[in-house]
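job 3f2a | input accepted
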Amino acid sequence: MRYYGAITVPANTLESAPVTAELKICPGVLTEFYRLFPPGCAGLVHLQVLWQTQQIFPSSAGESYLGDGSEILGSAGFVIDEVPAILELRAWSPGTTYEHVVYAEFYIERAHILIPEPLTVLKIPEF
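job 3f2a | predicted structure (127 res):
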C-alpha cells in the first residue's frame, strides 16, 4: 500500500521547536520511503521520520534529510506491528525566509504477504 504525507514548514522554524505532522498507515513492513524537497528549499529544510517517538529515518539518531529540488529514495525493512500505526514527520528550517512544503511517500507491504505461514510437515504413512 502506498501512503503520502506532506508537512508545511514555516519560515525560520528552529530545530528546538520543529513542526510535526502525523500519517496514519496500516501495520506491515515499510519497504520504501521517498522524500521530495521541492526547488527553493536550498538545503535548509530538515526532515526526520519517527515511529512511536523513535527516529527511524534517517537511521542515525539526530541526523536529518535535506535537499533542494531533489527526490530521494530509501529502502528499509522496518516492521510496524502495532495499531494505531502512525508515522510522525518532523521538520524545521532555520534561516529560511519563506515557508516550504516537504513531501514523503511510504510503501507498506502487509506482513502476511511478506511473511508466509509456517510450513506443515506431512507424515507419509508406512505400508
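job 3f2a | The domain at 2-114 is CATH 2.60.120 (Jelly Rolls).
job 3f2a | closed
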